[in-house]
Amino acid sequence: MATVLIIGRPNVGKSTLFNRLVGGRRAIVDDLPGVTRDFTVGRVNWQQRTFQLVDTCGLFENPENIVEEKMKEVTLELLSEGDLILFVVDGRFGLTSADQVLADYLRKQRIEVIFVANKVENPESFYSNMGNEIFSLGFGDPIKISAAHGLNIDLLLDEIFERL
Ligand code: GDP
Ligand code: MG
Fold first, then answer.
1. C-beta of residue 51 within 8 angstroms of C-beta of residue 45
2. What is the ipTM of this complex?
3. Among 11, 32, 120, which is best to mutate for testing ligand 1, by the most ligand atoms less than 8 A from CB?
4. N- or C-end of the chain: fewer Cβ atoms within 10 A?
5. What residue segments make up the domains of the chain, in order of their start?
């Protein structure tokens, strides 16, 4: 079965997206970043197709250590297990240096990435909020979703199955 990994700095809504796609309550969602520590794996069934989804949880809760420690050990291994990455940023509050570090890292990997901006409840104001900053990550124009409100989830699933 194909494996899709949700990657992103803390608090962008990875677990909310995981729960939205998998259904049920297999990942802990909390207001406090870094609450979940292990990987959570679930299965997504959609239009008679299926893939395995991994919420990478607390892997990136310590931005200054991303490259030095965690990404080099656990994540490298994990990334090689994945067929596709959902790289999630916060489309509401904007980007941080941790997003840039992750983006730089992911661009160097030979793995497919779908760029996702979450928390976009108002797509009309997305570009006036985020400006051209969003393009600085090097992944082009993101798919704009709201995991919490279920917006554009079908679009994301279409894109996932197209790339798998
Ligand atoms: P994670 O640390 O990346 O796993 O992020 P969480 O899924 O725990 O979400 C972090 C916070 O963002 C929580 O307060 C969520 O309720 C909120 N959140 C997640 N998705 C959305 C969304 O689509 N829109 C809005 N407005 N908030 C969201
Ligand atoms: Mg989480």
1. no
2. 0.99
3. 11
4. N
5. 3-163
